Amino acid sequence: MALPDPLAEQIVSISKAAGDKIMEIYEKDFAIYEKEDTSPLTEADLAAHNVIVEGLAAISDLPILSEESANIAWEERQTWDKYWLVDPLDGTKEFIKKNGEFTVNIALIDKGKPVMGVVYAPVLKRTYIGIDGAGAWLESDGEMNPITAKKHSSGETWKVVGSRSHQSPEIKTLLEQLGGEAELVAMGSSLKLCLVASGDAHLYPRLGPTSEWDTGAAHAVATAAGAKVTVLDPANPLADDAPDLTYNQKDSVLNPFFLVSA
User: Fold this and answer.
1) Whether pTM exceeds 0.85
2) Which residues have CB under 8 Å from 200's CB, separation 6+?
3) Using CB atoms within 10 A as the burial measure, which of 31, 62, 98, 147 is most buried?
4) Structural domain of residue 37, as residue ranges?
5) Is 152 within the bounds of a domain?
6) Which pLDDT tens digit goes with each residue over 75-92?
7) Is 195 helix (H, G, I), strand (E, B) or coil?
């Protein structure tokens, strides 16, 4: 199955090329780095960053904001209407633990909104793609299938995405407010948003620090699949009128707390 937008096909190819570079380092014995100044994570980050920047520059004149080139002044960034938002390797703990739950993330942002996103998990061989107005897809085992967020049904167990690394009291409070049974679905990196996009979870509340490049690509996937990504107020986590999470609208690249909901 071909994607409806040729640009998305190109972004998938760039993501996979970056993933190949990461895997060359991931499959080495990390002990070999102990005598060197660099870490395997740093090397993998930079290798993927270089592949992505080179690939995007070959197909687009748009500016690029990447975690590995984040020191672009707000005075310059605020002039951008449309740009690429990149996290070459999201999931530091997952990479170091070698559990496979790390991702390559490329998003196209237009006037503060993610309108296209690709999230590629090189170990899991999964690619999530979202195109605003066209839909969302998961490529796995060589097959491309559409995905849709799944709303919670009355009496159904809530499936709530959480982190393997930490749980906060605020998350526990939110779970209590849902009513009914709640099952925590553990996952690393930007794949947490993708679980809501694919219908494998109903909610992903994030009450910890993230940067815009951590979420942009998976945000595009989630909204293209029919989910919402909204700013989360810990005092009223399930508010119906919460504003959408936006990008490049302020000096800081840190996200507020947010909720991904089907």
Assistant:
1) yes
2) 159, 185
3) 147
4) 6-147
5) no
6) 999 999 999 999 999 998
7) helix
